[in-house]
Amino acid sequence: MVYEKQASSSTYSLPPCHEEKDDETPLLTNSPPLSSKFKTIANIFISIVGAGVLGLPYSFKRTGWVMGLFMLFTVAFFTYHCMMLLVHTRRKLESTFMGFSKIKSFGDLGFAVSGPIGRLVVDFMIVLSQAGFCVSYLIFISTTLAFMTTNKNEDTPLFLGLSPKVLFLWACFPFQLGLNAIPTLTHLAPLSIFADGVDIAAKSVVMVEDVFVFLKNKPALEAFGGFSVFFYGIGTAVYAFEGIGMVLPLESETKDKEKFGNVLGIGMAVISVIFGAFGALGYFAFGEETKDIITTNLGSGVISALVQVGLCINLFFTFPLMMNPVYEVVERRLCGSRYNLWLRWLVVLLVSLLALLVPNFADFLSLVGSSVCVVLGFVLPAVFHCMVFKEELGWRCIVPDGMIVVFGIVIAVSGTWYSIIEIISPKA
Fold it and tell me: Which residues form the Amino acid transporter transmembrane domain (predicted)?
């Protein structure tokens, strides 16, 4: 195994370790490298909370609210556990005993454990997951804008045989070409701050609106949806916690690394409660009328329109940020890490074309969560941890890691199959 000796002539070798002289911020900010507990929790929130939460009310409708909450909190626990597996694995590899230089990313960890094939697998999964997130963003934006402007007939042909949803998606395309031409995350930072502020405000208004609608309508609710929708709910929940690739950069910039596990646990717990409240309140408000995009359940009015536009603005400006890891991988592998505008534009075109083929927002969340995010978030961390610690911990490592791997593979295969069936099946 690669971690038993220092890489030398390999072109994938990790950079040499410098003695605490790295003045560059790992990824998320331009402030000093070491972050306080509060800043770390804030970065955890930014890294994890995304579009996936918008599909939770519909998922709760399918699974039942009790079953949905149980699956959501279970996935949150396993996500936290697997994040810490990555942290412990990196610490072990970077220890003096293992003799490894600084490991900065998930891909570096894959190389340290399994060589070029490990990095290749991680890179491939990151590209699929990040591109999948961005596909869901385009689906949400085009569906929401079409719903707002066409009196709920977003799939009715409007111009040249194209539906409003398709027209809005292509209207976004030239602007996304411009945003994705920006070469660095530094230049995108102001857009990120603006988008996060709009996102928090919009989702808060949605939750308040849900409470008033529930108190007025009090629709019939279902607690358990049956085993047939188990994999669907798991996939959507896994997608909601989309920050596994950020845990190593987050730990790198934390001031008190010994307490990072506690800080991460607090952040995950708070996010889980927020996700649970958002999903449950959305389902409680609209019951069986809950749609795949919860904002399309909101009534007409200025506040409702502002909320929907605000969420669209957030995802519109988040798109290039989420695509950045994709560009890092494809430019490193195809262009020697050199900036390539045409390659970036080609990737944006492919993502946009894929968004046209997906009919349902929540079903696509479940597909990406079941297929890619399960492997990236559960299977790979457990495999890497077991490969590094199996000789030291023996069965105490092999059994729990093996159970996570088996669980992840079962969810990936079954959930992917179920989600594909849901996508291709005609909706009533």
Answer: 36-421
Domain that holds residue 48: 41-424
219: left (phi > 0), else alpha (psi -120 to 50), else beta? beta
pLDDT tens across 79-116, in order? 999 999 999 998 888 875 555 567 878 888 888 888 89
Residue 303: inside a domain, yes or no?
yes
pLDDT digits (tens, 9 = 90+) for 345-373: 999 999 999 888 877 777 788 888 888 88
- Report yes or no on 61 lying in a domain: yes
Q: How far apart are CA 323 and CA 317, in angstroms?
A: 11
CA distance 293 to 399: 40
Q: What CATH number has the domain bearing residue 293?
A: 1.20.1740.10
> What is the pTM assigned to this prediction?
0.78
